[in-house]
Amino acid sequence: MDREWGSKPGSGGGASSQNEAIDRKERLRRLALETVDLAKDPYFMRNHLGSYECKLCLTLHKNEGNYLAHTQGKSHQTNLARRAAREAKEAPPAPQPLQPQKRKGNVRKSVKIGRPGYRVTKQFEEESKQRSLLFQIEYPEIEFNAKPRHRFMSSYEQRVQSVDKRYQYLLFAAEPYDTIAFRVPSTEIDKTTPNKFFSNWDPDSKMFTLQIYFKTKAPETKKPQPPLQEIVQEFNSLNDLGPANVLSRHTLPDY
């Protein structure tokens, strides 16, 4: 009795490739019916004729099982990949979470070349009884388009000298020079009266000028105000106004 190659006596003939493909599709259909919820499939649609359509591939299917078998096929999976790639390309970039901003410090752009030249002039205005200081700092090698900056620093901020609340520090900075600091009385600076507090940068002479006035203290009720000469003598007897050592670099806001 003739039988197909590979079959056993009493059994059916060997399955052909066509039969294997049909069997595979049937297994996929049954598996899909058990695991896939068609109600959540955006491409599944039932038309008015009672058949089913795939809106992605524009194919027509007789029943749900046939549609599910189609979704497992190569053409449907390829179209899904193309659709995802196109949507990713056309979608606007997702907003990035806000990161805490780090304080930006001044970046050293060049090698330091030492301290600038300076001149400090002590002044006294008889009409207002106010003492003042005129700072003139020379920056002949300042970087192109750069401007000197200055700031006031309390005695508690600096780490070079011992803390003394009677004094404050006035800092000047400009690249590529070292930052210099002057120790001045901690008396309040007069920044409200016109022409009592001003600064100027002359790009031609490369000189930065700063004028500050100290507010006058109210006289004590039980102690008469010292005469003008004593006030001037007291002011002139303060510690020298030279640089109090080169301080570490700081971010210097414009005043």
TrEMBL record:
Gene Ontology biological process: spliceosomal complex assembly
> Region Disordered: start and end of each range?
1-23, 71-111
Give the UniProt keywords, A-Z. Answer: Metal-binding, mRNA processing, mRNA splicing, Nucleus, Spliceosome, Zinc, Zinc-finger
Q: Is Zinc set as a keyword in this record?
A: yes
**Which one Pfam family would you cite for this protein?**
SF3A2
Q: Where is the composition biased (Basic residues)?
A: 101-111
Q: Does the keyword Lipoprotein apply?
A: no
Give the UniProt entry's GO cellular component terms. Answer: catalytic step 2 spliceosome; U2 snRNP; U2-type prespliceosome
What SMART domains does the record point to? CactinC_cactus, ZnF_U1
Q: What family does the Swiss-Prot or TrEMBL record give for this protein?
A: Belongs to the SF3A2 family.
Protein name as catalogued: Matrin-type domain-containing protein
- Identify the species of origin: Prunus dulcis
